[in-house]
What we know:
By secondary structure, the protein is of the alpha+beta class. The protein has helices at about 20-55, 70-85, 95-110, 130-145, 150-155, 155-195, 195-205, 210-250, 260-295; strands at about 60-65, 90-95, 120-125, 145-150. This is Cell division protein FtsX.
Amino acid sequence: MKLSLNPNAPDRRLLDEGRRTRAMTWIMSVMLFLTVLSGGLGLGMLAATAQLDRQLSGRLTVQIVEPDAAVRDRQARELVAALRSTAGVVRAAEVDRARLAELLKPWLGDTGLDPDLPMPAMIDVDVRGDAAVRATEEAARRIAPSARVDRHAQWLSPVRSFMATLTWLAGGLVLLMASATAAVVLLAARAGLDTHRDTIEVLHMLGSTDLQVARLFQRRIAIDTLLGGAIGAALALGLIWLLQSRFDALGSELMSGVALQQRDWFLLLLLPLSFALLATFAARVAVLRALAKTL
């Protein structure tokens, strides 16, 4: 028996179940909607984590706590000069005192602007490599014994851990949805076999093989998955684009790292096709096994 690809061919309509077929399409639409959202979350968090690592891996802040303003200013100047001549140090600059006072104003009020109030000197340092980090710490201890060196990556490590957890969670959700899709396909294939048992027996009497019958099921399920997946993926991609535009409007340097790149959009577009191939394979295996046991 020859199976035609024409959508109006008689063999194409053998498994057309009306409402059941439409229900399968909408189920796949919901599955792909949730899958693409999870994939978008995972890719966004992965990109944001990578950007956070790049930005913070070599960023340090040196804090000089010294009650004597003259000593503090001298130590800050000497330390900045020493760091600028240190190998591996890309940038070393003292934070503007007025800017620092403005940052402290929400906690100290107008008292933070009092010139008589002791205020630590803050030095921003960008370095390359662990050797430069150690050299910065040694220079700080030598020039200003009271100085404290803070690594940005260290105090932001809980944020990075949380973002990495979200990435793994999103990846797990994608795998879970793929497993659920395979399970739905298996149930749909078995239900279709029970519903069309008489039709399948007639096809066998006409000379059709199990493989040809399986092609009917796998094609029907592939079409439902592609159609439903396209609808669900389109809605999910639209929602992701809307959320990304909102993130861009926030103007946050951290949130801007969540933006998806061209490669990420391409991977998300591949999800409906990947799920259709998965559903086709699952339907083929389920039908062939069931036919081998029962018919």
